[in-house]
């Protein structure tokens, strides 16, 4: 599905990714974990050529992205969606407008755009907020808009760069369930970069561990599943009262 072959990336004299080869299997949820600065985000951004490698090849669905003209690359990128830690929504566009912009950019047939936007917003449960601007949304809602936008062109691959890092645990669990259902219902291959072990363990079937710009190991495992996190006031109150009650020495 995605094959990185001996890819390297420098920033000035600093080598952020050091001759890495990695295959992402079609239909899997693949995690990339490692310490800050290990090169995770750079490796992810090499997969859709947001970062061009200094050396090596990037192949997605049998097509060598590194050998493409910018027109061909634009076309190939339609099959690769991406979401980011800080959502990267256009502040001057409504929820509807943000998703529609992705279709416009990909020259999706005009007459079908409205239905497609609404279909994507329905999938992430935000149809009712179509006319809102991002500033009025919570972090979890913003990330759902970003997902709807990334799904609009029916990608085969979804790249997720720290998608949950700006979210609370309950909202993170909701987001992970959405990603899981995108994988199961539409067969979309997902690559998710995170420094949070819980995120990676919950939904990833294979995990690549990075250190110092290199792959340390790739591990296969049965995902733990997404933990149910209750957000009720009762839960918070009960948890707080459990430990260290000062009234009962
Ligand atoms: N555009 C850039 N210009 C200069 N240096 C960069 C650039 N992007 C990344 N780097 C450097 O490359 C190294 C790897 O960065 P990268 O963001 O890939 O790491 P990471 O593992 O994702 O870390 P984090 O979890 O902190 O985001 C870091 O030292 C970073 O400072």
Automatic annotation (TrEMBL):
Pfam families xref list: ABC_tran
GO cellular component assignments: plasma membrane
PROSITE patterns hit by this protein: ABC_TRANSPORTER_1, ABC_TRANSPORTER_2
Residue ranges constituting the ABC transporter domain according to the UniProt record: 2-237
Gene3D superfamilies: P-loop containing nucleotide triphosphate hydrolases (3.40.50.300)
Keyword ATP-binding: yes
Record flagged with keyword ATP-binding: yes
GO terms, molecular function: ATP binding; ATP hydrolysis activity
Highest taxon above the source species: Bacteria
Family to which the UniProt record says this protein belongs: Belongs to the ABC transporter superfamily.
Name this protein carries in UniProt: ATP-binding cassette domain-containing protein
InterPro entries for the chain: AAA+_ATPase (IPR003593), ABC_transporter-like_ATP-bd (IPR003439), ABC_transporter-like_CS (IPR017871), MetN_ABC_transporter-like (IPR050086), P-loop_NTPase (IPR027417)
Any one GO BP annotation for this protein: amino acid transport
Protein keywords: Amino-acid transport, ATP-binding, Cell membrane, Membrane, Nucleotide-binding, Translocase, Transport
Database matches in SMART domains: AAA (SM00382)
